[in-house]
Every structure is written in C-alpha cells, then in structure tokens.
C-alpha cells in the first residue's frame, strides 16, 4: 500500500510492468521491490537452495542489496536485486530464472568488454561509500586541496541514514530535518568539486592502489594514493522461526520503503528488536495511517536509573533527544503499544507472514514461552542494530578487533585518525565500527583531513580540530543511547533446531549444532562441510550467528576474523570481466600459507602410534581409512584443521585423461611422468566409488564423462596426438566431431569444432568426500590431532619420534602426506622431496539451470568447467593466484579472473548470464606430473605419499602406500613414482 504523504507527490504518471505474467502499475523510478509492496505482493522469488521441488518463497529482507533474497529475472537477466533495480516501464519481471534452453536463454547480465584495456583511474583519495562518513571524509579531503572521488553502489548519495526521496517522488521542500541535512551535504560535495560516481559496485580490492569496481556494468580499476572505506553497515540478523517468510524484513528495509518510496511494508505491521530506529519507523508508519500493531522492544522500560543517561543524551544532542520524544508522542496518539522487555519469538504464515508471536523476557533474559502473545500482522520489521560492512577491508588484509555487542562481530582496527593497520588505508563510520551518524561524520572529517595531510595538503586542519571536539560529544550521546536501550545479552540456546540459520543455503540451527557437537567446531570447517556462508549474501547473515553458536556450545573464545575473506565481496556479472589474457607458461611457485585457524588445543605429553600420517588433507584421510580398515593403529597429525587448505579448496574434478598442460610443449619433464600416471586415474575413480559405498554417504560422485574441446584445427591435432598416447596407457579416449559434440553437450558453444571424450571422467564434492572418508576412518579406529604443528622428526632406535608444539609422538612408520608442504617435512629427515606450492584460483557462479553435463576442459587454453549438484558452475583450469605474505593467504589475481572468465564464456556462452559468487585461491601440488610414493631410501619406516593430480588420485596413492607398508609390494608398479627417479633424471 502507498502512504498518503501530503507534501510528497508522484514525480510522473504511473507505468506498467509484469510480474510472473501479471500486469502491475508502478511509479517510474521506484524499485521493483517498492512497486511489488505497493501492489500488496510480498513473495518475490522461489527459494532455490532447497531440495528439488522446494517451492518456499522469499521476499524483501534487507532492502539494501546485501542479502540477495529478493533476486528476480528482469527481461531475461537473472540475479537482479528487486530492492535496487528501478522500474522505468514495460519490464517483464519473473520470480524464477530462465530455463537455459534455446527458447528461454539466460540473457547477458552485462556487456562483454571490448578489446580495449580495462579503464584505470588515478586519484589522490578514493572514498568508498557516500553515506554520512564518506561524504564528510570526501568534503574534508577536497577542502584540504586533494583530488577526491567518491564511489557508491546506489543511484543517489546519502547512504542508509541520509537516503533521499526516490526519483519516483517529488516534494516542494524536504519532508523533515534528516532529509534536509542529507541534501545540504550532497550540495556541499558538488560545490567543493568532489567527483561522485553512483551505481558503482565495488567488488573488492587486491591492493590499496587496486580497487575493483563495475560502474554501470563496465569494469573500472581505481588506483588511489590514499583509500578511505566508508562502507556503512547492514542490520544484525536475529533468527527466529519463520524469519525467511515473505513479509519479514529488517527495520532498515521497512524504512527504505516508507521514507524513500512512500510505500508501507504491509497494512498491519509489527516492529520488533532493539534500538531507536524501530521507534522512528513505527512513528513514521503510524503517522501516515498504517496500523502498527506493536513496537516490541527487547530493552526494559527506562526507569529512574536511566535518567542520568537521558540527561547525558540531552546535553550531548538535544535535537536528537527531542526527535525521540516526538516518536513516542506519535505512537501514543495512534494507540500503538510499546512492549518493553519483549521479543518476537516466531513468525507464522502460509506463503507469507500472517502472525507474529511475542513473549516477555524473563529474569534469566530468555523469552518466557509460557506467556506468548500472538499478533496478527502481514509485515514484521526486525531491527537489532547493525554490523560493520568490513568485507573489503578484511579482504585487503586490514586487522580487525572484536565488537562484543549483540551477537559479536568484527570491527576494523583503526587509529585516532581512522587509519587501519595498512598504511594509507582508512576506515570510518559504521563501516569500521557501528557508532551512529554523528560519530561517523566526525570520524570521516578527521580521516579525510589526515589522508590529505599525508599527501602534503594541510588546509583542512581546522576542520579536523572541530571534528575531534564533535567526536567526543557524539560518542557521549551514543554511549548514553546504548545505555537507554541496553538489552539483555543475546543467547541462541533457546532457538529451535528447525529454525533457519543460513538463509542462502537453507541450513538449520539443528544441522549446525549437530556438526559442532560432533567436533567440527570451526567456521572454516563448518563452511566446507555444510556450505554454510557460501550463498549470495557471502555469510553476512550467518557468520556472526554461527560464531556465537560455536562459542556457546564449546565454551571456547570465539573466532574474531570470521570466515576467510574472499572476492568478490558482492556478486558481479561474469560477462563484465571476461577479457582475453595471455596463457601462462608454467606453475607460479610460491610460499605456503600456514593459517593456524584450528582451535587451540591443550598439550598431550607423549603419544604412540603404529602409523603416523602427517597431513590431514584428502590423502591423509584416505591413508587413515586404508590403515584403519586394515586393523592398524593410525594417527593423523594436522597443523591446522582437517581439509582446511589445499584439499578443501579443490575444485573436485575426477581427471582420467591428461590435462592440456600435461602433454606437449607445456608439460613438466616432457610429459613422461604424467603419462606414466595415466593407469592410476580409472583405478582411483573406482576406489572413490567403493569408499563412498562403504561410507554409506553421497560424495556427489558423478561419472559424467570428460570433454576436452577445441576451437581450431591445431587444437584438434593436439587432441588426436594426446588421445594416441592415452590409449597406449589403457585410457578409452574418443575423438568427436562438431555434430557429435553438439549432440552430447548442446549447452557448449557452436563455435567449437570437436573434442576428445573420456567416459570415465567426472566430478566429486571435496567438501563432502574428505570429511566422510575421515569419519569412516575414525569409526574404524583411526585417531587424529588437529592444531598440531610438526617441528622435528628423528629416528629413535626402531621407531620415529615426532616433535610438535603440543607434545611428542612415537611411531614405527611415518608417512609424509603434507601435500604442498611435503618438502618441509622431508627436510626434517634430511631428504629433498621436490614438491612445490603453486597457488591456483577457482571461480564459482550463482545457481544456474542445467547447462553442462560433463567435466569440460580446453585443448589450447587453461580451463576446467563443471556444474555442481547445487547448480553453480565451477570454473578453474590452473590460472595462477598469488601468496599474500602479510595475510598468510593465497589470494586471487585480477588478470587470472578476467582470463578464466573469458575462456569459460567462449566454451559456455550462457555463463554471461550469471553472476560470480566467489573466487578463491587453492594450493596446487606441483611436482613433475607424477605422484611421489614409497619408502625413502635409507630411512626405514619413513614413506612419502604425495599426489600429483589434485583430488583424483588420493585413494589410489593411499592404497598403494598402505600395500607397500603392510606387504612390501603394491598392486601397480610404483617405480615411476618413487622419489629416486629425481636422482636418475
């Protein structure tokens, strides 16, 4: 329903658009979400992460483009956020994706870049975000004499606090003081000559002088001398049963609908949570004729003890305190009750919200479920404060600290001037730590002046001095406000198991609790095991909740950093970054990260084991399984956590044929070692199938066949020569022509002229297989130690002594299964294991209709493509990443992302109709194309077991190693795989 505002009118005549075939009326310039709400429609899309046939609906939730729950298809373009996409008239909007068929193709989401190089823009100071802090920082820096550019994702400056009226509405004068202040600041920016770039999606920063953006769908890289993050905040999640129902949204989303677009979130609205923003929204709705059923406030009613805070707030900001009084008066006049000391405990409805259950908070700070009240409502606005939007700063490597309020979240560590741990990089406002608009403006001014001063511009020192005085006053007001609205500490123990925790993946509290209780109690492990945080919102609405849940259930100090930062920080159109890049000429060897993310463990003194396996990746898991099933006492020693690094970042391809860079001129050691390894491929795939069947779980093994495609006659000649070598080693390889390829894989490009096909290839889910194998090994008697770093290995009589920071282990047999770190382990016993680390990147898209059935590679270019069971398309192919020393992380490279996406879209054109959700850097094992297995010469009982072919060969090398240890011989001739081959070469 539209609000009746006397001073605000539509800016133009209504237009029409269609939603799922239904004609609707909208105002030009308003968002799709606002237009749907005005037409009484809350259900926007069908949830796409559940089981097949799941038709749960989702609606507007965050209202600011952070949660991606409202994505729709607009004129064939999938993944468009209804809360940001504007109506002009005539749009065809669908709640579901196109089918990907010839009659219903995914339209490109952005234009493919032309052959010109990407645009790069230099500037003195770049400010990311045009809210209160960003505008203040930009104005201070510009007035000091620096050139300043502000980039912001929205169509208009102002951020959440100063958001202006939408273009769909007009007014003779600004409706209230908050609108006026925003307009004044915007005009000041223009008058000062600040360059303001709206509609700029900032998807990451690789270095302080390399900020990655899409402006109007076009790639622009900014290269500032100083960088200021003013990225604002998003609302803290507060999961209750039914919080994913259409009609349940954040308070900020409700406020955007009402203040910016003149639309109510519903006809009967409950506003619940904690803090003054809820009062402002409720008063605004009530003043314009909306039935606000209740304001449900978690803080207790302010008593006499709060008068000191009230007086303090009044002295610090009497105008804001007066506004709060007006909100109370409006609510009282409308008859809206404020239920102090209460919380919303569930939302119910069939397809959309119909009722809200609330309950008083008892003496134990938990909701008293014996005193529940049911409120009839079609909209619930939940607001429990905010979380700093620090994703870009974290990805860049800025240090964070713990903000303990509410669920507890990371805040960016900054100096008094706003500078982060990275020189020349600043974080201000709620994007650093949430403290309100006035603190944000003062901090922005201080940081802008300081940043300009480091460039030799000092004209803004007086403004900075005033801002420091204002900052003290603003902080005083904010402290008093937090005291007035001090709510009981949040606990999650009472949240029912069936409640959704991760909105994007549909994961429940019960599922995550069971994982934590089973010992999988770190954020990184939970992410790999369950897909927690892997959806479109990039863990914004589940990370803090899960960290709090881990803390509550383990009693262990929480993880401050949260999930490892990944780019993009927001999904971007795959088409926009598809640029042809030179193919690389070999693996880029680099350092090996030691994340140290495993929970800290207690010392254990001395332990003994028959077999000690060093390394808890996929090879370590398979070795544990092999030896435990054989009745051996096996202990796995892992420096971090199981499956955390190289194996857990793997793409999950099951390779049987040679990769394009394992044959011909690009091949290591002339390609001989890789060719010698070919017989192990089919054997390994069968072993994976056997392990999966024995474990009784779905490893998502799909033997779909593998295609290596060609675009040229030279590529076809390469494939024919390669196939001849593979057939000599027992691989059943077939050469397909254009028509045969089209029949087998119609989703591939019509420009491809043929392919090599190997039926035994396929894919596996490394986020499932390693853990399930490890669990089966433990069930058979295997033991493990995580967070245990091996520092020395020595021969002690008939056994080996392994020294770690937690204690010592004596073992008759030691197996070096440390993957990229195997060389470090080998050096401890005096041997050189020529294994190198080579960080490689991978990319995954949003869920898509079925486009690819096979594992797809390319004859001439680096590419690996597969479609996951979730629908996302995983893009790899050994494009290099880099090791960031200051973060101890492998990180992606812009050139590699561009080149990888370019090749992928040449092979599967409809990838241009998808968004990239994540890119990440895995650690590849770089040897000579063959594994290293067997007992080291002269070191009785010390074995190496390192795979050369990613994930595929893990069970094969583990089986051969177990046979060598227990029988002295193996099922295959292992001479080509022994360490001694390097001495002969």
UniProtKB/TrEMBL annotation:
Gene3D superfamilies: 2Fe-2S iron-sulphur cluster binding domain, sarcosine oxidase, alpha subunit, N-terminal domain (3.10.20.440), BFD-like [2Fe-2S]-binding domain (1.10.10.1100), D-Amino Acid Oxidase, subunit A, domain 2 (3.30.9.10), FAD/NAD(P)-binding domain (3.50.50.60). It comes from Jiella mangrovi. Residues 124-439 form the FAD/NAD(P)-binding domain. This is FAD-dependent oxidoreductase. Keywords: Oxidoreductase. Residues 611-964 form the FAD dependent oxidoreductase domain. InterPro entries: 2Fe-2S-bd_N, 2Fe-2S_ferredoxin-like_sf, BFD-like_2Fe2S-bd_dom, BFD-like_2Fe2S-bd_dom_sf, FAD-dep_OxRdtase, FAD/NAD-bd_sf, FAD/NAD-binding_dom, Metab_Enz_Cyan_OpOx_G3PDH. Residues 500-552 form the BFD-like [2Fe-2S]-binding domain.
């Amino acid at each position: 329903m539209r609000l009746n505002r006397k001073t605000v009118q539509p800016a133009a005549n209504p237009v029409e658009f269609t939603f799922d075939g239904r004609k609707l009326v909208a105002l030009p310039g308003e968002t799709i979400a606002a237009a749907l709400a005005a037409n009484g429609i809350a259900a926007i899309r069908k949830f796409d992460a559940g089981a097949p046939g799941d038709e749960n609906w989702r609606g507007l939730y965050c209202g600011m483009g952070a949660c991606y729950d409202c994505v729709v298809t607009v004129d064939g373009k999938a993944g468009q956020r209804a809360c940001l996409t504007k109506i002009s008239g005539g749009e065809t909007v669908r709640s579901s994706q196109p089918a990907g068929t010839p009659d219903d193709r995914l339209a490109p989401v952005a234009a493919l870049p032309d052959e010109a190089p990407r645009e790069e823009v230099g500037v003195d100071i770049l400010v990311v975000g045009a809210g209160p802090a960003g505008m203040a920082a930009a104005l201070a820096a510009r007035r000091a004499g620096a050139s300043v550019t502000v980039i912001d994702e929205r169509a208009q400056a102002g951020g959440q606090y100063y958001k202006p009226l939408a273009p769909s509405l007009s007014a003779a004068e600004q409706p209230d003081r908050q609108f006026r202040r925003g307009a004044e600041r915007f005009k000041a920016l223009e008058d000062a000559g600040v360059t303001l770039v709206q509609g700029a999606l900032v998807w990451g920063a690789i270095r302080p002088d390399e900020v990655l953006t899409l402006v109007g769908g076009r790639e622009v890289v900014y290269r500032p001398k100083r960088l200021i993050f003013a990225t604002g905040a998003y609302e803290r999640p507060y999961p209750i049963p039914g919080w994913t129902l259409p009609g349940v949204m954040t308070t900020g989303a409700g406020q955007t609908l009402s203040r910016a677009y003149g639309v109510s979130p519903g006809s009967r609205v409950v506003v619940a949570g904690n803090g003054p923003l809820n009062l402002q929204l409720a008063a605004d709705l009530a003043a314009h004729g909306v039935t606000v059923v209740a304001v449900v406030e978690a803080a207790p009613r302010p008593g006499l003890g709060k008068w000191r805070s009230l007086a303090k707030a009044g002295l610090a900001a009497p105008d804001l305190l007066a506004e709060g009084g007006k909100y109370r008066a409006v609510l009282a006049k409308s008859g809206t009750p404020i239920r102090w000391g209460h919380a919303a405990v569930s939302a119910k409805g069939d397809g959309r919200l119909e009722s809200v259950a609330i309950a008083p908070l008892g003496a134990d700070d938990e909701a008293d479920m014996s005193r529940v009240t049911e409120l009839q409502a079609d909209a619930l606005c939940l607001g429990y404060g905010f979380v700093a939007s620090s994703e870009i700063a974290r990805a860049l490597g800025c240090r964070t600290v713990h903000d303990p309020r509410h669920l507890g979240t990371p805040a960016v560590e900054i100096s008094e001037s706003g500078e982060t741990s990275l020189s020349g990089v600043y974080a201000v406002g709620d994007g650093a730590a949430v403290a309100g608009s006035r603190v944000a403006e003062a901090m922005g001014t201080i940081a802008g002046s300081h940043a300009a001063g480091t460039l030799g511009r000092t004209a803004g020192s007086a403004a900075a001095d005033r801002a420091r005085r204002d900052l003290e006053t603003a902080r005083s007001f904010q402290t008093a406000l937090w005291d007035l609205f001090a709510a009981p500490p949040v606990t999650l123990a009472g949240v029912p198991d069936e409640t959704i925790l991760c909105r994007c993946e549909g994961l429940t509290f019960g599922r995550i609790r069971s994982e934590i209780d089973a010992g999988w109690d770190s954020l990184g492990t939970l992410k790999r095991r369950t897909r927690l945080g892997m959806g479109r919102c990039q863990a914004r609405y589940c990370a803090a909740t899960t960290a709090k849940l881990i803390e509550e259930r383990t009693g262990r100090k929480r993880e401050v950093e949260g999930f490892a930062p990944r780019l993009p920080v927001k999904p971007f159109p795959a088409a926009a970054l598809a640029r042809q890049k030179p193919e690389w000429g070999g693996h880029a060897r680099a350092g090996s990260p030691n994340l140290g993310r495993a929970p800290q463990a207690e010392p254990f003194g001395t332990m003994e084991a028959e077999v000690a396996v060093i390394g808890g990746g996929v090879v370590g898991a398979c070795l544990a399984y092999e030896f435990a099933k054989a009745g051996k006492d096996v202990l796995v020693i892992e420096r971090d956590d199981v499956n955390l690094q190289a194996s857990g970042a793997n793409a999950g391809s099951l390779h049987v044929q040679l990769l394009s860079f394992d044959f011909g001129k690009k091949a290591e050691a002339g390609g001989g070692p890789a060719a010698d390894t070919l017989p192990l491929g089919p054997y390994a795939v069968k072993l994976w199938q056997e392990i999966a069947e024995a474990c009784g779980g779905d490893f998502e093994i799909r033997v779909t066949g593998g295609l290596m495609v060609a675009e040229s006659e030279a590529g076809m000649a390469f494939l024919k020569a390669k196939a001849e070598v593979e057939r000599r080693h027992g691989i059943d390889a077939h050469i397909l022509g254009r028509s045969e390829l089209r029949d087998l894989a119609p989703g591939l490009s019509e420009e491809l002229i043929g392919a090599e096909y190997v039926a035994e290839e396929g894919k596996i889910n490394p986020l499932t297989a390693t853990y399930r194998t490890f669990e089966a090994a433990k069930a058979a008697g295997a033991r493990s130690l995580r967070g245990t770093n091996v520092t020395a290995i020595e021969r002690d009589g008939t056994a080996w002594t392994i020294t770690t920071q937690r204690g010592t282990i004596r073992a008759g047999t030691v197996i070096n299964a440390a993957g990229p770190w195997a060389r470090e382990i080998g050096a401890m016993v005096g041997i050189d294991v020529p294994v190198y680390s080579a960080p490689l990147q991978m990319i995954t898209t949003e869920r898509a209709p079925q486009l690819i059935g096979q594992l797809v590679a390319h004859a001439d270019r680096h590419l690996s493509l597969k479609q996951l069971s979730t629908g996302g398309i995983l893009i790899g192919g050994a494009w290099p990443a880099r090791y960031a020393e200051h973060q101890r992380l492998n990180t992606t490279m812009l050139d590699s992302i561009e080149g990888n996406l370019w090749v992928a879209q040449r092979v599967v054109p409809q990838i241009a109709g998808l968004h990239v959700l994540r890119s990440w850097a895995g650690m590849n094992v770089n040897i000579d194309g063959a594994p290293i297995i067997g007992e080291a010469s002269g070191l009785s009982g010390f074995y190496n077991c390192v795979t050369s072919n990613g994930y595929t060969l893990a069970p094969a090398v583990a089986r051969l190693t177990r046979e060598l240890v227990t029988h002295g011989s193996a099922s295959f001739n292992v001479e080509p795989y022994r360490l001694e081959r390097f001495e002969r070469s």
